[in-house]
Write a structure and sequence with these properties.
heterodimer; A: 185 residues; alpha+beta; 31% helix; disordered C terminus; B: 816 residues; seven-stranded mixed β-sheet; six-stranded mixed β-sheet; 32 strands
């Protein structure tokens, strides 16, 4: 490409978008080429959205877009115009971890943690669609996400545990005998 | 099988002296911030006014660089900086390369030697703009024939480095005992050729750097996710031409995986730091995934083994002959360690005295190697176990029985292998027997995966099942100076005494805070291993506190002594030893402090349960009170836990010679049950049984997590992962995650894990390392199970990864 063909930052096309991010409306002027993952990370300061491959394989950037589970690196921010995005930051309620987050902690389903946001979002979505998945359904449901540390064993257990917790929330109105947490200070 | 029930680490019950957090599955302190998205990885670090860097990379495997035209980029209003090698030469040094005779600049100098090699860098306001600017840099090449294959490279027709004069950067032949005699006398000599494809850790987080330059102090602050930031910092400060104390490498508390690979990201640190100095502004670089896979200096071993085993009629192994070529790519980074570490487990779990070990370390037009979990041991174990399988068949002995006959027995431990290293503890035959029992009970029974009727039925349908057990040793706790010794001439080696040996301890600091809790400082970086939790639970025991009373932070490369860190499964052993040492010293200091305060003899007071008590009275001083009383810094201690081989005379011979010493020998007996579809060649691991011994289990949940992850990476290496190259052009064939296939949930079977424990007599806590385990044992185990499955067809997994394509090819060839 030659310099004549290349616009500079002063004359690049931009578009105004409004996106509801974890319940709050965000309005920004963005370049159409800005990836949704970069929009969430850089414009919305949601660093729980991780960028691992930027070509849709690893799933670290998985978020919920109007209820659909998507890889935010495969969408442009402008495609989220008018839609609602939920990221891992939106899960904990008043400091209380979401049952899926709790289950991941309790089952040691994360090591380096870089893939974890994506797995938590994918697990939440899986359990919303199928509250009681068997092992094969868990494997199928999480096959779009890669973890390089855990060998998935503890993630499988965490999904089972999260299913139990969510089930308990449904039936007992929230009662759950979660073990005391070793990680809280 | 064992399922370690996690232990709450934050209970408020008293009687702490009666309980121990060590050995419990204390849940990790690291998790909460990660789970809520609050963790700050290097990708998240962006100081004010930070610019971003992009790299112009070679599109050819081998080419003279005729011209780098940067004018268009420089003229563009969005461009902040362009640097080529000429700019580097004005102010900086080449990067330390690993072997003498190679001058490696952080950007290609005159010639590109692999696809993806950095040629120029550009800096702009953000990465989008920086990539636009990179597009404006025009590189003119004159292409050269590449050399792509290690065996061809040995011939030297095409030279990767003309000035070096050869593509063989290093080679050595080392004989132990009398291998010639053994091969002459033995009844049989079995030969085999086995190949191991290029794999790597491929952590989910790519490399990242944020460099800042301080003009006033002429110093650098570099945040980055390099591994071993206190050990390999010379690759950065030497390149920048500054003393070590003016180049501060700081690694965030959260690193998104490394597995060894990130020790070699210094190129990026150097380039970002140089740009930051040139611009007087912070410069950030985040490697993208294609850069990482294609030319990120992060591939690992690519080996061809030609091996021989001398065996008697009765199945006694007499001698072993190992020869291999390792294709290191364009530059010999960390070369000697990688090809020599297998000497620490030279004969694996077998009692063999006469061995020869020879290698050629060759250079080709591929991206350079770095370390990866196992660090060269995994291919050795794979090739050796393949040879053992081949020998068993040739002798018509059951492969399991053949192994059993040659195993080192418990009464031989500690056992000195021919290369001088010593295996600490264990019961290999016992472990093998136990695995037999497990398989009998669970799988060889009616309805099990290995029920003979089912195996037969599946075979009729074209699916061949099998499993093979073997005992595989994981050498743990590197950290003596054998790499330097390897470069030392024979006469000097001959005259070495134990006093000449340098060993690398592990450093830990702790201090009592005003509120009576304790703050500890690690001198190492972490990438998901749970070091903070480990130190917290051990120190809690030492000090009679709760793990949640201990906070753990990190030292940067200037603050920390230039020592070692997390490599070669050191951390469980070294950090636990250091925690015990720090705890003892802090208890003693606090007791002395209290005695001085009360004006009594030291003997009149005792430390107990988070306080110091005065004997014969009910007076006591809390840690908070002691912190208040301390005006001499006695509530602050540091401790260096010595390398476990220090002071143990059994290691003297090895330490004064030039071969590696790894004083712990964790081991695994694996029995993966595999099924091969002989039509498609696809291999499925149906279930992975493993029995493991890592000595004292400090935190069983973390131990199991490490093993699970290692086994998954081992499965990838055995069946899926490979950095292939076009043999003609040298173009890499795996530059996206669609080509470099990582195991997903679809590939990973359930792992059934059981533990046995023979604590190491050499380490403070009895722990052996576990960080590399699964990657060391799983590839060999899976390959041998494939051999068992395909035994009726005479096909073996003689090249890993044993992809469906390769398997099909072997099966078709066998049919003909």
């Amino acid at each position: 490409m030659s310099i004549e063909d290349m616009p500079h930052s002063g004359d690049r096309p931009t578009r105004e978008i409004s996106v509801t991010v974890n319940g709050e409306e965000v309005t920004r002027e963005v370049e159409p080429r800005l990836k949704l993952s970069d929009f969430l990370r850089n414009e919305c300061d949601l660093q729980g959205v991780r960028v691992g491959c930027e070509h849709g394989v690893c799933g670290a950037c998985t978020v919920s877009l109007d209820g659909d589970t998507v890889k935010s690196c495969l969408l442009y921010a402008v495609q989220a115009e008018g839609l609602a995005v939920e990221t891992v930051e939106g899960l904990a309620d008043d400091g209380q971890l979401h049952p899926v987050q709790e289950a991941f902690h309790e089952e040691h389903a994360l090591q380096c943690g870089f893939c974890t946001s994506g797995f938590v979002m994918a697990t939440k979505s899986l359990l919303e669609e199928n509250p009681d998945p068997d092992r094969d359904e868990v494997k199928e449901g999480l096959a779009d996400n890669i973890c390089r540390c855990t060998g998935y064993q503890n993630i499988y257990r965490a999904v089972d545990r999260a299913a139990d917790k969510l089930d308990a929330v449904e039936t007992d109105g929230g009662a759950d005998d979660t073990a005391t947490d070793g990680g809280e200070r | 099988m064992s399922e370690s029930e996690p232990q709450a680490g934050h209970e408020t019950t008293g009687e702490l002296e009666d309980r121990s957090f060590t050995g419990q599955s204390v849940r990790r302190f690291e998790d909460r911030r990660i789970l809520t998205g609050e963790a700050e990885y290097i990708h998240d670090v962006t100081p004010p006014n930070c610019l971003e860097m992009a790299i112009v990379r070679s599109v050819h495997a081998h080419a003279d660089i005729v011209d780098v035209d940067t004018s268009a980029a420089e003229e563009h209003p969005d461009c902040e900086l362009v640097m080529t090698v000429e700019d580097l030469k004005e102010s900086y040094n080449p990067q330390p390369c690993g072997l003498e005779g190679f001058e490696e600049w952080s950007l290609a100098d005159g010639k590109a030697r692999f696809v993806g090699e950095p040629i120029a860098v550009v800096v702009a306001e953000d990465r989008y703009l920086a990539e636009d600017m990179a597009d404006l840099v025009n590189v003119e090449y004159e292409t050269l024939d590449p050399v792509v294959d290690g065996m061809t490279a040995r011939e030297g027709e095409v030279l990767v480095h003309e000035e070096y004069g050869s593509n063989v950067a290093d080679n050595e032949r080392i004989a132990f005992g009398d291998p010639d005699g053994a091969f002459e006398d033995a009844d049989h000599v079995v030969e085999g050729t086995y190949e191991w494809g290029r794999v790597s850790g491929v952590p989910l987080e790519t490399a990242g750097v944020v460099a800042q330059y301080d003009e006033n102090g002429d110093s650098f602050h570099i945040d980055c996710n390099i591994q071993l930031h206190t050990l390999v910092d010379d690759t950065v400060y030497e390149t920048l031409g500054r003393p070590a104390d003016r180049v501060e490498l700081n690694v965030p508390a959260d690193v998104g995986g490394s597995f060894g690979t990130k020790i070699a990201i210094h190129r990026y640190c150097n380039l970002a730091a140089m740009a930051a100095e040139q611009l007087g502004q912070p410069v950030k670089f985040v490697e993208d995934r294609i850069e990482n896979l294609q030319g990120g200096d992060m591939h690992c071993s690519e080996r061809r083994y030609e091996m021989r085993l001398a065996v008697d009629d009765d199945g006694t192994m007499r001698g072993l002959d190992v020869w291999f070529v390792d294709d290191f790519g364009a530059w010999p980074h960390y070369p000697v360690n990688q090809v020599l570490k297998p000497l620490s487990v030279l004969t694996n779990s077998y009692d063999v005295e006469d061995v020869v070990y020879e290698y050629d370390l060759v250079l080709t037009n591929k991206t350079a190697q770095t370390a990866y979990r196992g660090f060269g041991v995994d291919p050795h174990q794979y090739a050796l176990e393949m040879l053992v399988d081949d020998a068993a068949r040739e002798l018509d002995i059951d492969p399991t029985e053949f192994r059993r006959r040659n195993l080192i027995t418990p009464d031989q431990l500690p056992y000195r292998i021919p290369s001088g290293n010593i295996y600490d503890s264990g019961d290999y035959p016992g472990a093998m027997d136990r695995m037999d029992e497990i398989l009998d009970e669970n799988e060889r029974c009616e309805g099990g995966l290995l029920d003979p009727d089912i195996v037969e039925q599946r075979r009729e349908e074209g699916y061949y099942r099998g499993t093979q057990t073997a005992v595989l040793i994981e050498p743990g706790v590197s950290g003596s100076d054998w790499t330097d010794r390897q470069r030392t001439d024979d006469e000097t080696i001959e005259n070495r005494t134990r006093e000449d040996v340098a060993e690398l301890p592990e450093h830990l600091r702790a201090e009592v805070k005003p509120d009576g809790t304790v703050l500890a400082w690690l001198a190492t970086d972490s990438s998901g291993q749970g070091h903070q939790t480990l130190v917290a639970q051990l120190l809690a025991d030492e000090l009679g506190l709760l793990p949640s009373d201990i906070e753990v932070d990190y030292l940067d490369s200037v603050e920390a002594p230039t020592e070692y860190g997390s490599a070669a499964s050191r951390m469980a052993v070294m950090l636990s030893g250091a925690s015990v040492g720090v705890g003892e010293q802090l208890r003693e200091n606090l007791a002395e402090l209290a005695a001085d305060h009360w004006g009594v003899e030291r003997e009149a007071v005792s430390y107990r349960d988070g306080r110091v008590e005065r004997g014969g009275t009910d007076e006591s001083l809390s840690l908070a009170k002691l912190a208040e009383l301390d005006d001499e810094g006695r509530t602050r201690v540091s401790y260096d836990y010595e390398h476990p081989a220090t002071g143990i005379s059994e290691f003297d011979d090895a330490l004064t010679s030039k071969y590696p010493v790894y004083p712990t020998a964790a081991y695994a007996v694996d029995a993966p049950i595999v099924e091969v579809d002989v039509e498609t060649g696809e291999v499925e691991v149906l279930k992975f049984y493993t029995l493991r011994d890592c000595g004292t289990m400090l935190n069983p949940m973390i131990v199991e997590g490490q093993a699970h992850g290692g086994i998954a990476q081992g499965l990838g290496a055995a069946l899926m992962e490979e950095f292939g190259y076009d043999q003609g052009s040298g173009q890499p064939q795996a530059i996206t995650m669609f080509d470099y296939l990582l195991p997903s949930t679809k590939n990973m079977p359930d792992i059934e894990m059981e533990h046995t424990s023979h604590p190491s007599p050499f380490t403070e806590t009895g722990a052996k390392g576990v960080g590399e385990g699964g990657m060391i044992d799983a590839p060999a185990a899976i390959a041998c199970s494939i051999n068992d499955a395909l035994e009726p067809l005479g096909v073996t997994a003689d090249r890993l990864p044993f992809t469906a394509h390769r398997a099909r090819k072997r099966l078709r060839e066998a049919e003909e």
